[in-house]
Structure formats: C-alpha cells, structure tokens
Design goal:
This protein is mostly helical. Helix content is about 80%, strand content about 0%.
Length: about 525
C-alpha cells in the first residue's frame, strides 16, 4: 500500500529514492542505476553467498571460541571508524547539500518526524555497504542452521546507529559553535580524516612493531593478554560476542542502538531545527567598502594567473583535504621503503618522487581541467601560451617547494645522490603536470574524487609516469654505490625506466585532447 503523503513512511520512501538516485550518479548514471550495474551488484552478492557457504559449512554449530570475540570486536571498531566518516558525509549532505529542509520545516509536518526520518536515512547510509558485505554470512548461516550469525545484523545495525547519531550530533554541535559556513567545511574534512586515520594507525602499528625490538614487543603483548581486562571473557569484547551471536550481548547491543536512536531523535530535533535555520541563513550581505573603489594592477599577467589559482584553491579547504588525503595513503608505502636503513638515499628519493608527482597530478587537475571560466580565458586578449604556462607553474611550484628542504638535506649529505634524486623529482613533477594538461577532460572541482573513473587513460598515464620516475630515482642513486658487474645491469634498468617515462610522455602528447 502507498504511504499517505506527509507520513513518516512517505518521507522514508523519499529518502530511499534519493539514496537510489545518488547511487546511480556515483555509478555513472543520470537518473537511475542501469541494468548492467544492477547485474554486476547481483553477481557480486551471489559470489559473496558462495564464499560464505564455503566458509561456514565446516564450522561447528555449537558455541564459538571466546577468542574469536576479540577479533570480531577489533573488526567492529574498524568498521565504526569508517561508519563515522560516512555519517559525517551524510549529515553534511542532509543539512547543507540537499537544500530541502527549509521547505520541509515550513510545511505542516512535525519537525520531530522530519528529523527522525532524516536520521534514519543517515543510519541506512552508514549500514548499507556493510550489510551488503556481511549479510551473506547471516543468510548462509541461517540456511545451515547456525542461527548465531543473526548477531552480525544486530551488531552492524547498532554500530551504524551509534555512529549516525554521533555524526549528526557532532555536525549540529559544530553548527552551533562555529556557524554553518565553517561547519560545512570542517565536517567534510573530518569525514575524510576519519576514514584515513584507521588506515594510518594500522600501518604505523605494523611499521613500528617491525622496527622495534621483537622481544620487547612480544613480552608487552603477552603481559597485556594476561591482564583480566584483555581476557577473552572480559566485558571489553562485548560487541564481538554480539557478532558471534551471544544472546545477552546481542540483546544488549539491540537495546543500546534503539535507546541511542530514540534519545537522539526525541531530544535534539529542536537543536536540528536551529541548525537548519543557521544553514539556510548562512549568506551574508556584502558591506560596501568605505571610500572610492581602487583598482591595483601591480603584477604581470603570469603572476596574476598564478596567484589567482592559489587563491581559489586556498578558499576551498575541503578540496585541499581531498588533495592531501591521497598523499596520506602513500605514507605507509614510504614506511615500507624507509624500513631498509641500508639504502636511505634511494628510498628517500623514490618516496619524494612518488609524493611530489601525486600531489602535482591532483593540483594540475584542479588548475587545468577544473577551470571555472575556460571560455572567459580563451576569449580574453591575453596570450594563451602565457596563461597555460602560468597554470602549469601554479601546480608545479607547491610540490617543489614542499620537497625543497629534504632535497637540500640530501645534497648536503651526499651531493651526487642528492642531485640525481633532485633530477628524478623535478622530472616527475613536470611530467605529471604535462600529462594532466594533455589528457585531462574538463570537469568540476566537486568531481575531484571521481576524476579517475571519468578518464581512465589519464589515470594510467599518471600512474606509469610516477612509477617510472620513482624507479629511475632509485636506480640512479643505486648506480652511484654499485661496482663491478652489478653496475651494468643497474644502468640498463635505469635506461629502461627513463625510456619508459619518455615514451609515456610521448604517447600522452600524441593522444592529447584537441581544443574545441
């Protein structure tokens, strides 16, 4: 039966339709997800059921080992970090991006119903992916008579509810303290950092555990495990026992989730209305400056374009966070490279080349492909060559300034190795900027995260270019320390890496986009 207009079920159906259309946009569709995408998701879900069957068919139907609760709890904590990132994004979308809350709140609908349904939409947004991934365990487990796996649904739903409530309350609190304008940026930055924080913590723990003395680390781990707080039957692993189907733990998780949702929806809907009113009135009237307007033209055209690009990027902190976020995921790779203390020169050179090239590619896409007024620049009397060079300089100079101090330290410590590393870094930066200039398609700054999906060829050229110059930096520095027969093979590999990098540039130039 169709829900009556204005009811909570009607609002929830609207939220689900908006989520469906949003998934279609993320999948590349215009209004609704195509049959091909649906078939791919259905096939993936079927394969997950098959994998769950092979995983569970040999497990006993009795109680699980209590030690598995530790693993389940740690996994649930990791999922909670990712859900918090999703909840912050969904809260920002619900409060700022959709732009329909002022219309809903001015209708006869009660504000509590609007906030309850919107909060439930955030919960579903947080839980959808993990229900898709872990739901097959529940279905196959029930089919095999292992009903304890129903606790997976309860644990995921409760965790999603808690993180959705936390994300919404955090967003509303930031609105009250900082205002709607700053909260919009800060919440988006926090959502990006929350997802990367777990990744960095896991990788840094692995790095430091391998670099520290193994005996001391093992003794510390044994002492912690012997503590009653970390025992398998400790209350600390209560969420893990709910995942494994312990009746008391599962019931406790369900009650906790329902209580958190009810308290958040019932006690903060007025706070929600206040936050929406601030978000709707975040536009400020411009104050006319006192005195006559003064126009100052002190820079050349080149300098003006460079400063203009830097100012546009500096005015969008969320975009800056997205650019820097891709570098965060490269840090564990640098940890892995720098773990070998016997070759610090090649390792640091490769790391600097990878970081600077990746940063240059992101900045070049923003400056070149995401230009807000390309028609205005093309129709202006300014020389197109000067504008193009200024744009390339705007995306090349920040990475070079960022790595200037490490390069100077390397040159002072080992002049020849430092000069070779500097050559590889500069070449990787310039090549990354040229590849994006030749291959990138026009886009919007809001599409920064999905730029790789829209232009696979440009992404492949960027990846190959980065790897070639990074490998060349490693090989050139290694060549300065090798002697004898190994030097010949190293020189051949260095020549091959440089040839591959130049060939990548040539192909990118030959297949470059022609201006319309």
């Amino acid at each position: 039966m169709r829900a009556p207009p204005g009811s909570s079920r009607w609002l929830l159906g609207h939220e689900l339709r908006m989520a469906w259309y949003g998934a279609a946009v993320n999948a590349g569709g215009r209004r609704r997800m195509g049959w091909a995408s649906i078939a791919v998701w259905a096939l993936a879900w079927t394969l997950l059921h098959v994998g769950a069957f092979f995983l569970l068919r040999n497990l006993p139907s009795g109680p699980m080992d209590p030690r598995f609760a530790i693993i389940a709890t740690l996994a649930l904590v990791a999922i909670a970090f990712l859900m918090l990132s999703s909840s912050l994004k969904a809260s920002v979308l619900a409060l700022f991006e959709r732009g329909d809350l002022d219309l809903l709140l001015s209708s006869p609908l009660p504000s509590r119903s609007i906030f309850t349904v919107r909060l439930l939409g955030v919960v579903l947004a947080c839980a959808a992916l993990y229900l898709f991934l872990f739901g097959p365990l529940v279905h196959v487990g029930v089919a095999l008579g292992q009903f304890r796996w129903v606790g997976v649904y309860v644990a995921i739903a409760t965790t999603a509810t808690l993180m959705a409530c936390l994300g919404m309350l955090l967003t509303l609190a930031l609105v009250r303290v900082l205002g709607a304008r700053r909260t919009r940026v800060l919440a988006q930055v926090l959502s990006a950092v929350a997802g990367a924080l777990l990744f960095l913590l896991s990788q840094s723990f692995s790095f430091f555990s391998q670099t520290a003395q193994s005996g001391a680390a093992e003794r510390t781990a044994h002492q912690l495990l012997r503590s009653p707080l970390f025992a398998p039957d400790s209350p600390l692993w209560f969420p893990g026992r709910a995942v494994l189907g312990d009746p008391l733990a599962t019931l406790g998780m369900a009650v906790l989730g329902i209580a958190a949702f009810a308290l958040t929806a019932g006690r903060t809907h007025r706070f929600f209305v206040h936050g929406v009113q601030q978000a709707a009135s975040n536009s400020r009237a411009l104050v006319k400056p006192a005195g006559d307007m003064r126009l100052r033209f002190r820079r050349s055209l080149f300098d003006t374009v460079v400063v203009k690009e830097w100012r546009l990027i500096a005015r969008d902190p969320h975009l800056i966070s997205q650019v820097l976020l891709q570098l965060v995921y490269l840090l564990p790779l640098l940890f892995l490279i720098l773990r070998h203390n016997d070759a610090p020169g090649p390792a640091i050179g490769t790391g600097l080349a990878l970081l600077s090239s990746s940063l240059t590619g992101g900045l070049a896409w923003i400056v070149v492909a995401a230009e807000d007024a390309p028609d205005l620049l093309q129709s202006s009397p300014a020389a197109g060559r000067t504008i193009a060079l200024a744009k390339l300089a705007a995306c090349v100079m920040p990475p070079l300034l960022l790595v200037a101090l490490p390069l100077l330290w390397l040159i002072v410590r080992a002049p020849l190795a430092g000069i070779l590393i500097g050559f590889a870094v500069v070449a990787s930066v310039l090549s990354a900027a040229l590849v994006v200039k030749w291959q990138a398609r026009p886009g919007k700054r809001s599409d920064f995260k999905s730029r790789g999906k829209e232009n696979f060829l440009c992404s492949m050229f960027e990846l190959v270019n980065t790897l070639c110059w990074g490998g060349l930096g490693w090989l050139l520095v290694t060549l300065t320390t090798d002697a004898g027969s190994a030097a010949g093979s190293t020189a051949l590999m260095a020549a091959g890496a440089m040839a591959a990098a130049l060939l990548t540039l040539l192909l990118a130039w030959m297949m470059r986009r022609r201006p319309d």
